[in-house]
Amino acid sequence: MAFGNQQNIHVGRAEIWFGGAPPVSGATVPMTGGQPTTQAPSVNGWNYVGLTLGGANFIYHPTVFEIMTEQTTAPVGAVTTQEEMRIEFGLAEVGYTQLKQLVTGAQDQGTFVSLGGKTFPVTTALLLIAPRRYGGFIQMCLYNAVMTDDRNFNLARAAAMNPKIVAKGLADPSRNNGDQVGYINTYVVSA
Fold first, then answer.
1. What are the pLDDT digits (tens) for 9-33?
2. Distance separating alpha carbons of residues 143 and 179, to the nearest angstrom
3. Within a 10 A sphere around the Cβ of 145, how many other Cβ atoms?
4. What is the C-alpha to C-alpha distance for residues 120 and 184, in angstroms, rounded to an integer?
5. Of 168, 134, 40, 180, which is closest to residue 29 (Cα–Cα)?
6. How distant is the alpha carbon of residue 150 from its chain centre?
7. Strands 47-67 and 31-32: what pairing?
8. Cα atoms in the Cβ-side hemisphere of radius 13 Å centred on 148
9. Which secondary structure element, helix H or strand E, spans residue 96, and what is its range?
10. Are strands 113-114 and 31-32 parallel, antiparallel or unpaired?
11. I want to staple 180 with a disulfide (CB 3.0 to 4.6 A). Which of 3, 92, 119, 171 is the partner?
12. What's the chain's average pLDDT?
């Protein structure tokens, strides 16, 4: 019986980073010591937000239209008519820094955030980095993300608050076709 490559079995946490400059098309975010390297044209580089609690999911959902002709019973072609790319994770650390970056529509009040009223969601680059057991790192990146869905802050004695965060990627039409929303790279070497 054949056994798969155990180096490809990932078990571990992920770290959340925001606001850096997305890499150029065909590249991943460069790292040094397991952390993203500040890169031009980013002014502030990547900002560390915190750790995930539980699994982090990278979801790519294309909607494909199949092209049929009268001469055959099977599709003769297909075209993608819609795409959704998102990263979902549970937030382990919940504090002021995390709230102001992860709660869409939050108004920064200096030491807390307030909610409600007409606001425009803030968009930002999102990067998750997870160390691999056998070396290297996994990266999940959205070049321009908006935080969507509910935030449920559970206050229970025997449970972590763990609000679920859903970051949906928005297309950047100035990037190369096929590389406008984000990427997942299962093995990144860190300098």
1. 776 789 999 888 888 888 888 888 8
2. 9
3. 25
4. 28
5. 40
6. 17
7. unpaired
8. 12
9. helix 96-102
10. unpaired
11. 171
12. 84
pLDDT one-digit tens code per residue, 37-95: 865 444 357 888 888 888 889 999 999 999 999 999 999 999 999 999 999 998 887 88
Amino acid, single-letter form, for residue 164: K
Within 8 A by CB and 6+ apart from 74, the residues are: none
Residues found in the chain: 191
Cβ-contact 139, 100 below 8 angstroms: no
Place of tokens 């869409």: 104
Residue type at 158?
A: A
Task: Quote the CA–CA distance of 43 and 58 in Å, as a whole number.
Answer: 27
